[in-house]
Amino acid sequence: MLLAGFRTGNGIPDGKTRFRALLYMNRKPHRPRSRVSSGEDTLEVSEESGGSPDPSPELGPPAQGYSHAPVLLDEVVSYVPAGARLLVDCTAGGGGHAAALLERFPEAELLALDRDPHAVATLQSRLESQGSRVVIRHSTFSRLPSHLMVESADFILADLGVSSPQLDQAARGFSFLSDGPLDMRMDPGSGGPTAADIVNTWPEQELCRLFMDLGEERFSGRIAQALVYSRDQRALRTSGELARVIHQAVPFKFHRRGRHPATKVFQALRIAVNEELEELSKLLESAPGMLRPGGRLAVISFHSLEDRKVKEAFRTWENPCVCPSEIPVCVCGLTPLGRRLTKKAVAPSAAEISTNPRSRSAHLRVFEKRPEAVPEERS
Ligand SMILES: C[S@@+](CC[C@H](N)C(=O)[O-])C[C@H]1O[C@@H](n2cnc3c(N)ncnc32)[C@H](O)[C@@H]1O
Protein backbone atom coordinates (compact mmCIF):
# COMPACT_ATOMS: atom_id res chain seq x y z
CA MET A 1 0.00 0.00 0.00
CA LEU A 2 1.21 3.45 -0.81
CA LEU A 3 1.58 5.72 2.19
CA ALA A 4 1.84 8.92 0.21
CA GLY A 5 -0.10 11.79 1.70
CA PHE A 6 0.38 11.02 5.42
CA ARG A 7 0.78 14.36 7.08
CA THR A 8 1.28 15.89 10.49
CA GLY A 9 -1.26 18.27 12.03
CA ASN A 10 0.17 21.36 10.36
CA GLY A 11 -0.13 19.77 6.93
CA ILE A 12 3.63 19.44 6.51
CA PRO A 13 5.00 15.88 6.42
CA ASP A 14 7.48 15.37 9.27
CA GLY A 15 10.76 13.50 8.91
CA LYS A 16 9.70 9.90 9.48
CA THR A 17 6.30 10.30 7.91
CA ARG A 18 7.87 11.80 4.83
CA PHE A 19 10.28 8.84 4.61
CA ARG A 20 7.47 6.30 4.93
CA ALA A 21 5.48 8.28 2.41
CA LEU A 22 8.22 7.72 -0.12
CA LEU A 23 8.19 3.94 0.28
CA TYR A 24 5.69 1.35 -0.77
CA MET A 25 5.05 -0.98 2.10
CA ASN A 26 2.53 -3.38 3.61
CA ARG A 27 1.11 -1.29 6.40
CA LYS A 28 -0.18 -3.13 9.45
CA PRO A 29 -1.79 -1.40 12.48
CA HIS A 30 0.99 -2.55 14.86
CA ARG A 31 4.37 -3.26 13.38
CA PRO A 32 6.56 -5.39 15.65
CA ARG A 33 10.28 -4.70 15.66
CA SER A 34 12.48 -6.74 13.37
CA ARG A 35 9.69 -8.46 11.55
CA VAL A 36 10.51 -10.77 8.69
CA SER A 37 7.43 -11.48 6.68
CA SER A 38 6.99 -13.98 3.91
CA GLY A 39 5.42 -12.88 0.64
CA GLU A 40 6.90 -9.45 0.14
CA ASP A 41 9.86 -10.58 2.28
CA THR A 42 9.89 -7.39 4.21
CA LEU A 43 12.16 -6.94 7.15
CA GLU A 44 11.48 -3.85 9.18
CA VAL A 45 14.19 -2.63 11.45
CA SER A 46 11.95 0.03 12.79
CA GLU A 47 8.61 0.70 14.33
CA GLU A 48 6.51 3.26 12.59
CA SER A 49 6.20 6.53 14.43
CA GLY A 50 6.18 10.25 13.80
CA GLY A 51 8.75 12.90 14.63
CA SER A 52 12.06 13.82 13.10
CA PRO A 53 14.95 11.37 12.65
CA ASP A 54 16.63 10.25 15.87
CA PRO A 55 20.14 11.49 16.46
CA SER A 56 22.51 8.86 15.10
CA PRO A 57 23.18 6.21 17.76
CA GLU A 58 26.28 4.04 17.45
CA LEU A 59 26.15 1.76 14.45
CA GLY A 60 26.87 -1.84 15.31
CA PRO A 61 29.61 -3.96 13.73
CA PRO A 62 28.70 -6.54 11.04
CA ALA A 63 27.17 -9.72 12.44
CA GLN A 64 29.56 -12.49 13.41
CA GLY A 65 30.67 -14.47 10.39
CA TYR A 66 29.96 -11.60 7.99
CA SER A 67 33.06 -9.73 7.01
CA HIS A 68 33.05 -7.55 3.92
CA ALA A 69 35.23 -4.47 3.39
CA PRO A 70 33.19 -1.84 1.50
CA VAL A 71 35.10 -0.65 -1.58
CA LEU A 72 35.66 2.96 -2.62
CA LEU A 73 33.90 4.03 0.58
CA ASP A 74 35.17 7.63 0.80
CA GLU A 75 34.63 8.11 -2.92
CA VAL A 76 31.02 6.87 -2.72
CA VAL A 77 30.24 9.12 0.25
CA SER A 78 31.79 12.11 -1.53
CA TYR A 79 29.26 11.80 -4.38
CA VAL A 80 26.15 12.00 -2.18
CA PRO A 81 24.46 15.34 -2.91
CA ALA A 82 24.54 17.88 -0.07
CA GLY A 83 21.35 17.86 1.97
CA ALA A 84 20.34 14.37 0.81
CA ARG A 85 17.28 13.08 2.69
CA LEU A 86 16.54 9.69 1.15
CA LEU A 87 19.40 7.31 0.38
CA VAL A 88 18.95 3.91 -1.26
CA ASP A 89 21.51 1.13 -0.99
CA CYS A 90 20.41 -1.47 -3.55
CA THR A 91 23.09 -3.99 -2.53
CA ALA A 92 23.49 -3.34 1.17
CA GLY A 93 25.35 -6.63 1.93
CA GLY A 94 27.08 -6.34 5.31
CA GLY A 95 26.04 -2.70 5.65
CA GLY A 96 29.50 -1.16 5.23
CA HIS A 97 28.41 1.52 2.76
CA ALA A 98 25.03 1.84 4.45
CA ALA A 99 26.55 2.49 7.89
CA ALA A 100 28.95 5.08 6.51
CA LEU A 101 26.13 6.86 4.67
CA LEU A 102 23.95 6.94 7.78
CA GLU A 103 26.80 8.26 9.86
CA ARG A 104 27.85 10.91 7.35
CA PHE A 105 24.26 12.08 6.69
CA PRO A 106 22.52 12.07 10.09
CA GLU A 107 19.44 13.78 8.68
CA ALA A 108 18.95 11.22 5.95
CA GLU A 109 16.96 7.99 5.90
CA LEU A 110 17.93 4.81 4.17
CA LEU A 111 16.19 2.11 2.19
CA ALA A 112 18.49 -0.95 2.11
CA LEU A 113 17.91 -3.90 -0.23
CA ASP A 114 19.68 -7.20 -0.65
CA ARG A 115 18.62 -10.44 -2.28
CA ASP A 116 20.72 -12.56 0.10
CA PRO A 117 18.84 -13.52 3.29
CA HIS A 118 22.14 -13.85 5.19
CA ALA A 119 23.00 -10.24 4.27
CA VAL A 120 19.51 -9.11 5.28
CA ALA A 121 19.91 -10.70 8.73
CA THR A 122 23.29 -8.99 9.10
CA LEU A 123 21.84 -5.64 8.09
CA GLN A 124 19.09 -6.07 10.62
CA SER A 125 21.48 -6.56 13.51
CA ARG A 126 23.97 -3.95 12.33
CA LEU A 127 21.50 -1.18 11.61
CA GLU A 128 18.99 -1.97 14.33
CA SER A 129 20.11 0.96 16.45
CA GLN A 130 19.03 3.34 13.69
CA GLY A 131 15.35 2.63 14.34
CA SER A 132 12.97 4.22 11.91
CA ARG A 133 15.72 5.84 9.86
CA VAL A 134 16.22 2.53 8.08
CA VAL A 135 13.93 0.22 6.16
CA ILE A 136 15.40 -3.08 5.00
CA ARG A 137 13.92 -5.21 2.27
CA HIS A 138 14.80 -8.70 1.13
CA SER A 139 14.54 -8.02 -2.57
CA THR A 140 16.34 -7.81 -5.86
CA PHE A 141 17.07 -4.31 -7.11
CA SER A 142 15.19 -5.01 -10.33
CA ARG A 143 12.14 -4.56 -8.10
CA LEU A 144 13.20 -1.14 -6.84
CA PRO A 145 10.12 0.56 -8.35
CA SER A 146 7.88 -1.64 -6.20
CA HIS A 147 9.52 -0.28 -3.03
CA LEU A 148 9.93 3.38 -3.79
CA MET A 149 7.89 6.26 -5.14
CA VAL A 150 9.02 7.91 -8.34
CA GLU A 151 11.40 10.86 -8.07
CA SER A 152 11.95 10.30 -4.34
CA ALA A 153 15.59 9.25 -3.87
CA ASP A 154 18.50 11.65 -3.54
CA PHE A 155 21.13 8.96 -3.89
CA ILE A 156 21.01 5.38 -5.17
CA LEU A 157 24.01 3.08 -4.72
CA ALA A 158 24.51 -0.28 -6.42
CA ASP A 159 27.71 -2.08 -5.41
CA LEU A 160 27.40 -4.99 -7.81
CA GLY A 161 28.62 -8.56 -7.63
CA VAL A 162 29.12 -10.82 -4.68
CA SER A 163 30.22 -10.13 -1.12
CA SER A 164 33.22 -11.66 0.61
CA PRO A 165 31.07 -13.96 2.80
CA GLN A 166 29.31 -15.27 -0.31
CA LEU A 167 32.70 -16.07 -1.84
CA ASP A 168 34.28 -17.38 1.33
CA GLN A 169 31.57 -19.73 2.59
CA ALA A 170 32.10 -23.08 0.88
CA ALA A 171 28.44 -23.96 1.34
CA ARG A 172 27.42 -21.19 -1.10
CA GLY A 173 29.34 -22.85 -3.93
CA PHE A 174 30.79 -19.62 -5.41
CA SER A 175 34.45 -20.47 -4.92
CA PHE A 176 36.76 -22.75 -6.84
CA LEU A 177 39.10 -22.68 -3.84
CA SER A 178 36.76 -24.63 -1.58
CA ASP A 179 34.51 -27.60 -1.98
CA GLY A 180 30.82 -27.00 -1.44
CA PRO A 181 27.52 -27.77 -3.14
CA LEU A 182 27.48 -26.21 -6.61
CA ASP A 183 24.75 -23.66 -5.87
CA MET A 184 25.87 -20.02 -6.48
CA ARG A 185 22.42 -18.51 -5.91
CA MET A 186 22.71 -15.27 -3.97
CA ASP A 187 19.20 -16.02 -2.74
CA PRO A 188 19.15 -19.79 -2.15
CA GLY A 189 15.41 -19.60 -1.50
CA SER A 190 14.63 -18.08 -4.89
CA GLY A 191 13.75 -21.43 -6.44
CA GLY A 192 15.84 -20.58 -9.52
CA PRO A 193 18.31 -22.99 -11.13
CA THR A 194 21.64 -23.62 -9.42
CA ALA A 195 25.06 -23.78 -11.07
CA ALA A 196 24.81 -27.60 -10.80
CA ASP A 197 21.55 -27.50 -12.79
CA ILE A 198 23.31 -25.56 -15.55
CA VAL A 199 26.47 -27.65 -15.82
CA ASN A 200 24.59 -30.93 -15.63
CA THR A 201 21.77 -30.16 -18.08
CA TRP A 202 22.73 -27.52 -20.63
CA PRO A 203 23.85 -28.77 -24.05
CA GLU A 204 27.58 -28.50 -24.73
CA GLN A 205 27.09 -25.69 -27.30
CA GLU A 206 25.17 -23.57 -24.83
CA LEU A 207 27.74 -24.10 -22.10
CA CYS A 208 30.44 -23.08 -24.55
CA ARG A 209 28.55 -19.89 -25.47
CA LEU A 210 27.91 -19.10 -21.81
CA PHE A 211 31.61 -19.37 -20.90
CA MET A 212 32.52 -17.27 -23.94
CA ASP A 213 29.87 -14.56 -23.51
CA LEU A 214 29.84 -14.13 -19.75
CA GLY A 215 33.35 -15.34 -18.90
CA GLU A 216 35.28 -14.27 -22.02
CA GLU A 217 37.05 -17.64 -21.54
CA ARG A 218 39.30 -18.53 -24.48
CA PHE A 219 39.10 -22.28 -23.77
CA SER A 220 35.29 -22.32 -23.59
CA GLY A 221 34.95 -25.14 -26.17
CA ARG A 222 37.44 -27.46 -24.47
CA ILE A 223 35.97 -26.79 -21.05
CA ALA A 224 32.37 -27.40 -22.22
CA GLN A 225 33.47 -30.66 -23.87
CA ALA A 226 35.30 -31.80 -20.73
CA LEU A 227 32.26 -30.99 -18.56
CA VAL A 228 29.91 -32.97 -20.76
CA TYR A 229 32.34 -35.92 -20.75
CA SER A 230 32.66 -35.75 -16.98
CA ARG A 231 28.93 -35.43 -16.25
CA ASP A 232 28.23 -38.40 -18.53
CA GLN A 233 30.25 -40.49 -16.02
CA ARG A 234 28.71 -38.85 -12.95
CA ALA A 235 26.80 -35.62 -12.36
CA LEU A 236 28.92 -32.72 -11.07
CA ARG A 237 27.81 -31.86 -7.56
CA THR A 238 30.44 -29.66 -5.93
CA SER A 239 32.48 -26.56 -6.71
CA GLY A 240 35.65 -28.59 -6.14
CA GLU A 241 34.66 -31.21 -8.73
CA LEU A 242 33.89 -28.50 -11.28
CA ALA A 243 37.17 -26.68 -10.58
CA ARG A 244 39.14 -29.93 -11.08
CA VAL A 245 37.51 -30.65 -14.46
CA ILE A 246 38.28 -27.12 -15.67
CA HIS A 247 41.84 -27.29 -14.31
CA GLN A 248 42.44 -30.42 -16.40
CA ALA A 249 40.72 -29.04 -19.52
CA VAL A 250 42.87 -25.88 -19.78
CA PRO A 251 46.28 -26.69 -21.30
CA PHE A 252 48.92 -26.50 -18.58
CA LYS A 253 51.05 -23.92 -20.42
CA PHE A 254 48.13 -21.48 -20.16
CA HIS A 255 47.79 -21.81 -16.39
CA ARG A 256 48.74 -18.39 -15.01
CA ARG A 257 50.41 -17.83 -11.68
CA GLY A 258 48.03 -16.32 -9.15
CA ARG A 259 44.92 -17.01 -11.23
CA HIS A 260 42.99 -20.28 -11.08
CA PRO A 261 42.04 -21.54 -14.58
CA ALA A 262 38.42 -21.86 -13.38
CA THR A 263 38.09 -18.14 -12.53
CA LYS A 264 36.24 -17.08 -15.67
CA VAL A 265 33.92 -20.09 -15.87
CA PHE A 266 32.90 -19.59 -12.24
CA GLN A 267 32.22 -15.93 -13.03
CA ALA A 268 30.10 -16.85 -16.06
CA LEU A 269 28.07 -19.38 -14.09
CA ARG A 270 27.49 -16.96 -11.23
CA ILE A 271 26.29 -14.23 -13.62
CA ALA A 272 23.93 -16.67 -15.35
CA VAL A 273 22.56 -18.25 -12.16
CA ASN A 274 21.73 -14.84 -10.68
CA GLU A 275 20.74 -13.20 -14.00
CA GLU A 276 23.09 -10.40 -13.04
CA LEU A 277 23.10 -8.58 -16.38
CA GLU A 278 19.30 -8.67 -16.64
CA GLU A 279 19.09 -7.34 -13.09
CA LEU A 280 21.46 -4.50 -13.97
CA SER A 281 19.52 -3.63 -17.14
CA LYS A 282 16.30 -3.37 -15.13
CA LEU A 283 17.97 -1.18 -12.52
CA LEU A 284 19.33 1.11 -15.25
CA GLU A 285 15.85 1.33 -16.76
CA SER A 286 14.17 2.33 -13.52
CA ALA A 287 16.80 4.34 -11.62
CA PRO A 288 16.44 7.69 -13.43
CA GLY A 289 12.72 7.70 -12.66
CA MET A 290 13.38 6.94 -8.98
CA LEU A 291 15.79 9.86 -8.52
CA ARG A 292 14.71 13.33 -7.56
CA PRO A 293 15.88 16.10 -9.86
CA GLY A 294 19.53 16.61 -8.91
CA GLY A 295 19.68 13.09 -7.39
CA ARG A 296 22.56 10.75 -8.18
CA LEU A 297 23.04 7.13 -9.14
CA ALA A 298 26.39 5.51 -8.22
CA VAL A 299 27.28 2.09 -9.58
CA ILE A 300 30.35 0.05 -8.64
CA SER A 301 31.03 -2.77 -11.07
CA PHE A 302 33.65 -5.49 -10.96
CA HIS A 303 33.88 -6.77 -14.51
CA SER A 304 33.83 -5.29 -17.97
CA LEU A 305 30.40 -6.67 -18.95
CA GLU A 306 28.73 -4.72 -16.16
CA ASP A 307 30.91 -1.65 -16.47
CA ARG A 308 30.23 -1.45 -20.23
CA LYS A 309 26.47 -1.48 -19.60
CA VAL A 310 26.72 1.28 -17.01
CA LYS A 311 29.07 3.35 -19.16
CA GLU A 312 26.81 3.10 -22.21
CA ALA A 313 23.65 3.88 -20.24
CA PHE A 314 25.18 6.97 -18.62
CA ARG A 315 26.52 8.17 -21.98
CA THR A 316 23.11 7.78 -23.62
CA TRP A 317 21.36 9.52 -20.73
CA GLU A 318 23.75 12.45 -21.09
CA ASN A 319 23.38 12.61 -24.85
CA PRO A 320 20.20 10.82 -25.96
CA CYS A 321 19.93 12.64 -29.33
CA VAL A 322 19.47 10.14 -32.17
CA CYS A 323 19.53 12.65 -35.04
CA PRO A 324 21.85 11.75 -37.91
CA SER A 325 25.13 13.67 -37.62
CA GLU A 326 24.55 15.46 -40.96
CA ILE A 327 21.45 17.25 -39.55
CA PRO A 328 22.62 20.63 -38.19
CA VAL A 329 19.95 20.94 -35.47
CA CYS A 330 18.36 18.32 -33.24
CA VAL A 331 14.90 17.28 -34.39
CA CYS A 332 14.46 14.09 -32.33
CA GLY A 333 13.50 16.11 -29.28
CA LEU A 334 15.33 13.81 -26.87
CA THR A 335 16.84 15.92 -24.11
CA PRO A 336 19.62 14.95 -21.68
CA LEU A 337 18.54 13.30 -18.45
CA GLY A 338 21.50 14.82 -16.66
CA ARG A 339 25.25 14.56 -16.68
CA ARG A 340 28.01 12.10 -15.88
CA LEU A 341 30.00 13.16 -12.81
CA THR A 342 32.66 10.59 -13.67
CA LYS A 343 33.70 10.77 -17.34
CA LYS A 344 36.26 8.09 -16.47
CA ALA A 345 35.45 5.39 -13.93
CA VAL A 346 36.90 5.98 -10.47
CA ALA A 347 39.26 3.17 -9.42
CA PRO A 348 40.51 2.28 -5.93
CA SER A 349 43.80 3.75 -4.78
CA ALA A 350 46.93 1.62 -4.53
CA ALA A 351 46.57 1.83 -0.74
CA GLU A 352 43.02 0.43 -0.87
CA ILE A 353 44.06 -2.38 -3.22
CA SER A 354 46.93 -3.34 -0.93
CA THR A 355 44.63 -3.59 2.12
CA ASN A 356 41.71 -5.08 0.18
CA PRO A 357 42.94 -6.91 -2.95
CA ARG A 358 39.34 -7.78 -3.88
CA SER A 359 38.76 -4.10 -4.63
CA ARG A 360 41.28 -4.13 -7.49
CA SER A 361 38.78 -4.47 -10.33
CA ALA A 362 36.21 -2.01 -8.92
CA HIS A 363 34.96 0.79 -11.20
CA LEU A 364 32.72 3.52 -9.81
CA ARG A 365 30.56 5.62 -12.14
CA VAL A 366 28.16 8.33 -11.00
CA PHE A 367 25.35 10.06 -12.88
CA GLU A 368 23.49 13.17 -11.74
CA LYS A 369 19.91 13.68 -12.81
CA ARG A 370 19.20 17.12 -14.23
CA PRO A 371 18.07 19.56 -11.54
CA GLU A 372 14.50 20.77 -11.86
CA ALA A 373 13.98 23.25 -14.68
CA VAL A 374 13.61 26.74 -13.23
CA PRO A 375 10.13 27.96 -14.17
CA GLU A 376 10.18 31.01 -16.41
CA GLU A 377 9.24 34.25 -14.67
CA ARG A 378 5.99 35.84 -15.75
CA SER A 379 6.16 39.51 -16.65
C1 LIG B 1 29.65 -6.34 -3.23
S1 LIG B 1 28.38 -6.82 -2.13
C2 LIG B 1 27.87 -5.30 -1.42
C3 LIG B 1 28.53 -5.01 -0.14
C4 LIG B 1 28.01 -3.77 0.58
N1 LIG B 1 28.12 -2.59 -0.23
C5 LIG B 1 28.72 -3.58 1.91
O1 LIG B 1 29.23 -2.48 2.16
O2 LIG B 1 28.76 -4.52 2.71
C6 LIG B 1 27.06 -7.13 -3.21
C7 LIG B 1 25.76 -7.45 -2.51
O3 LIG B 1 24.74 -7.25 -3.47
C8 LIG B 1 23.79 -8.25 -3.37
N2 LIG B 1 23.17 -8.33 -4.69
C9 LIG B 1 23.73 -8.68 -5.85
N3 LIG B 1 22.85 -8.59 -6.85
C10 LIG B 1 21.70 -8.12 -6.31
C11 LIG B 1 20.42 -7.79 -6.85
N4 LIG B 1 20.16 -7.93 -8.14
N5 LIG B 1 19.48 -7.32 -6.01
C12 LIG B 1 19.76 -7.17 -4.67
N6 LIG B 1 20.93 -7.48 -4.12
C13 LIG B 1 21.90 -7.94 -4.93
C14 LIG B 1 24.56 -9.48 -2.97
O4 LIG B 1 23.74 -10.41 -2.32
C15 LIG B 1 25.63 -8.88 -2.05
O5 LIG B 1 25.22 -8.92 -0.72
SSE map:
Layout: H1 15-21, E1 35-36, E2 42-44, H2 73-78, E3 86-89, H3 96-104, E4 109-114, H4 117-127, E5 134-138, E6 153-159, H5 164-168, H6 195-201, H7 204-215, H8 220-233, H9 239-249, H10 263-273, H11 276-290, E7 291-301, H12 304-318, E8 338-340, H13 350-355, E9 363-369
Parallel strand pairs: 3-4, 3-6, 4-5, 6-7
Antiparallel strand pairs: 1-2, 2-5, 7-9, 8-9
Helix pairs in contact: 7-8, 7-10, 8-9, 11-12
Residues 68, 70, 90-97, 113-116, 119, 140-141, 159, 161-163, 186, 279 line the site of S-adenosylmethionine (SAM).
What's the end-to-end separation, in Å?
A: 43 Å
Q: List the ions, cofactors and other small molecules found in this model.
A: S-adenosylmethionine
Total number of domains: 2
Per CATH, which architecture of the largest domain?
Answer: 3-Layer(aba) Sandwich
What characterizes the major β-sheet? 9 strands, mixed
The CATH class of the largest domain is identified as Alpha Beta
Strand order of the largest sheet: 1-2-5-4-3-6-7-9-8
Radius of gyration: 23 Å
Percent helix: 25-40%
Coarse morphology: globular
Count of beta strands:
9
Put simply, the count of helices is: 13
